[in-house]
Amino acid sequence: MKIAILPGDGIGPEIVEQAVRVLGALDLKFETETALVGGAAYEAHGHPLPDGTLKLAQAADAILFGAVGDWKYDKLERALRPEQAILGLRKHLALFANFRPALCYEQLTHASSLKPELVAGLDILIIRELTGDIYFGQPRGRRRAVDGHFPGAEEAFDTMRYSRPEIERISHVAFQAARKRSKKVTSVDKANVLETFQFWKDVVSEVHAQYPDVELEHMYVDNAAMQLVRAPKNFDVVVTGNMFGDILSDEAAMLTGSIGMLPSASLDKAGKGLYEPSHGSAPDIAGKGVANPLATILSAAMMLRFSLDQPAAADRIEHAVKAVLAAGLRTADIWSEGTTKVGTREMGDAVVAAVAGKTIATKTKS
Ligand code: NAD
After folding, report:
1. Which one from 91, 135, 183, 233 is the annotated catalytic residue?
2. Residues 329-347: tens digit of each pLDDT
3. 219, β-bridge pairs
4. Which of 57, 166, 182, 236 has the highest local Cβ count within 10 Å?
């Protein structure tokens, strides 16, 4: 099993280090190789996704990714900005399905902005299509308007588009994922206004005919945004397009209290994937040793389950994280009165110990 390790920028290296230590605590043989990506790669090689990094990612069975970005790169031309590395990896590796579980841990229900009873036991899987939609549709650009409300005025435009095969393959992924859960899929669209999403809805319904054991509901995106904060536990698997998925998965993340807890996976059709925390590079806390490494550690667990066919090892990591939370250890982002505040490395130590079946030490009371 060859894993490409791409730590990236900001807190990326700190949190990935802990995930790699946790992987090392399992009795499995991995070959790992690390490469620069994002701003760090731009500094060293003049490009956020250098050839060497891309080749390593292509050759690996799975990629463990930290985060990229820093405000200091905001003035760079778009193609050289750190975030382009993720888009480049998605494109070159044909990663089309993004899995974002939003799971509310029992001990963290108070950290949610919603009432505990609304989020206790929450377990949603948002599946976002990654290759199509308005993010990639052509043509796009700026021009002088020839019609519309202000002919002659400067305007900008993007193109929303989805092809049948794109919608079909993400629908299959969603229905198959639902079969392993509670057999319900909510497809989110804006079919009442957008032609692209009327087509989306039609194709999802056609694919659904092959999964009669799975319940399908369709929901407009504005209603879905509302229902996610009104009664989030009514959802199980949510499947949607690139832009709606981008927004709804962040909304769902917040239901769980901290983005520092949420893993993600981006998969190709063969199950090879890129695994990364749902958060960014958090430049505001980088280098301080306070970042929460659990989202990255849980991403490593997803990697074991989805790409490396090691479900038992994935379970071990997930149980270890639960044990650490149950022992009262918290990084600053999830800390509350009566729990023990720990830094990034101490949190990593605790998960490593729990994976190895050792008792978890709680030293630094705060
Ligand atoms: P962010 O997710 O980096 O940070 C948002 C807030 O959450 C910050 O206050 C941060 O300190 C906190 N936070 C994030 N992760 C945390 C963790 N593990 N533990 C504790 N606190 C955590 O989002 P942002 O500030 O909007 O973006 C910062 C940079 O990250 C930007 O350059 C952005 O483009 C980039 N970004 C990268 C990715 C990615 O690599 N996939 C995703 C989103 C944003």
Report:
1. 135
2. 999 999 988 999 999 999 9
3. 188
4. 57
